[in-house]
């Protein structure tokens, strides 16, 4: 998610460079704050709204978990009034990829189940403040989640199969000393040195036949030809779950689908605070003022139920936009019909959420090169 902000609080600015690899968070006398992505009890403070600007509005494109989280934090920690926040979505329902639909007769469908673990710090930070679905008032979604997983823990009895269905010994990673070093060295590499390197470019052929690699690639949907950098980033993110990787005991799951478990109670909470939702509204471009590389959004161009619209953004407002949805253009098949891919492989077209990213990237190199992703099949997009 990108945050473009008119500068309401510039006591401790973190400079966002066009080349993000050249900027590092570091502490010094002018920046004594903890890093913005740090989590933990120290971050549970309620900031006193000293910098609150009366009438500040929040404009959020996308009502997936990222957009809902942005609204939650604007209200809880940013002291923005709920009624001053609007969430737009091209779809006619909130939740984005976290969906759940169907009925007992026709069957149920969700676009992927979600493996989660204990270190989803932001998620749990939010959901410890959201009323549980079934437990009495005062209990949170997190309380409910723990109850389920503590009493019905997840583990696999047959994590690896081979020889037409026989359980393979999955008690160890099966990594030799030199294969372990391949992993350690990857953790220590600088990300800017890993552009355009694939997993199979880096790892030895024998590494790609280890239990570890089978665990990893099946849990995180990696192919051998995928990006090594992506794998490195996942390793940093999930290293603390490594102990339960072989039998999946490091994972936790909700009782219901993710729409009912997370989206519904969070949306209910936001609506109670006055947050507004507008559906059928696709943003396709941003107007901004560019002052020496600092972009200040002045307007959001939308197609609102097909009609062109321009949302004016004031100097003090905050705009959060998503670069597109990984589940856009989902096609479904069944036992008798293959899914039909309706959109071109190489260009998702202007009637796509991705148009917004393409349009802003044309105007500023700050937003990267979306075409480097859409040049490959979009079906390659997967993620955790
Ligand atoms: C099959 C599958 C399996 C997955 N498994 C896991 C897992 O096991 N564990 C895990 O942690 N994660 C998993 N993920 C990833 C996780 O679901 C996503 O990272 C997360 O849901 C993304 O949330 P988001 O809000 O960023 O985007 P999305 O959920 O994609 O929501 C984006 C929303 O924004 C709207 N939107 C986008 N652009 C525009 C625009 N220009 N104008 C208006 N509206 C717009 C879209 O309509 C959509 O509603 C999986 C994903 C898939 C697809």
Automatic annotation (TrEMBL):
Transmembrane segments: none annotated. It comes from the Bacteria. Pfam families: MCRA (PF06100). This is Oleate hydratase. It comes from Gluconobacter kondonii.
């Amino acid at each position: 998610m990108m945050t473009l902000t008119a500068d309401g609080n510039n006591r401790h600015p973190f400079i966002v460079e066009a080349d993000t690899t050249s900027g590092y968070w570091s502490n010094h006398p002018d920046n004594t704050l903890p890093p913005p992505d740090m989590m933990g009890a120290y971050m549970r403070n309620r900031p006193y709204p000293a910098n609150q600007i009366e009438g500040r509005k929040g404009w959020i494109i996308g009502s997936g978990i990222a957009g809902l989280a942005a609204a939650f934090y604007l209200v809880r920690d940013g002291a923005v009034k709920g009624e001053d926040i609007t969430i737009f979505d091209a779809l006619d329902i909130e939740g984005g990829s976290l969906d759940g639909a169907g009925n007992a007769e026709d069957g149920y469908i969700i676009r992927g189940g979600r493996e989660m673990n204990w270190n989803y710090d932001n998620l749990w930070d939010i959901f410890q403040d959201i009323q549980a679905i079934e437990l009495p008032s005062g209990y949170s979604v997190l309380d409910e989640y723990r109850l389920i997983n503590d009493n019905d823990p997840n583990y696999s009895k047959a994590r690896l199969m081979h020889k037409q269905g026989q359980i393979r010994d999955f008690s160890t990673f099966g990594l030799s000393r030199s294969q372990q070093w391949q992993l350690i060295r990857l953790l220590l590499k600088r990300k800017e040195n890993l552009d355009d390197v694939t997993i199979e470019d880096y790892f030895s052929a024998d590494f790609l036949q280890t239990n570890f690699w089978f665990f990893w690639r099946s849990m995180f949907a990696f192919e051998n030809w995928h990006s090594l950098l992506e794998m490195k980033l996942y390793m940093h993110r999930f290293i603390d779950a490594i102990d339960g990787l072989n039998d999946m005991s490091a994972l936790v799951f909700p009782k219901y689908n993710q729409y009912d478990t997370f989206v519904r109670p969070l949306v209910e909470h936001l609506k109670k605070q006055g947050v507004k939702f507008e559906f059928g509204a696709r943003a396709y471009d941003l107007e901004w003022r560019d002052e020496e590389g600092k972009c200040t959004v002045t307007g959001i161009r939308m197609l609102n139920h097909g009609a062109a619209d321009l949302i004016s953004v004031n100097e003090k407002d905050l705009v959060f936009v998503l670069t597109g949805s990984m589940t856009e253009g989902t096609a479904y098949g069944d036992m008798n019909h293959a899914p039909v891919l309706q959109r071109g492989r190489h260009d998702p077209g202007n009637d796509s959420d991705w148009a917004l990213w393409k349009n802003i990237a044309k105007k500023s190199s700050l937003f990267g090169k979306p075409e480097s992703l859409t040049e490959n099949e979009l079906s390659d997009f997967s993620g955790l």
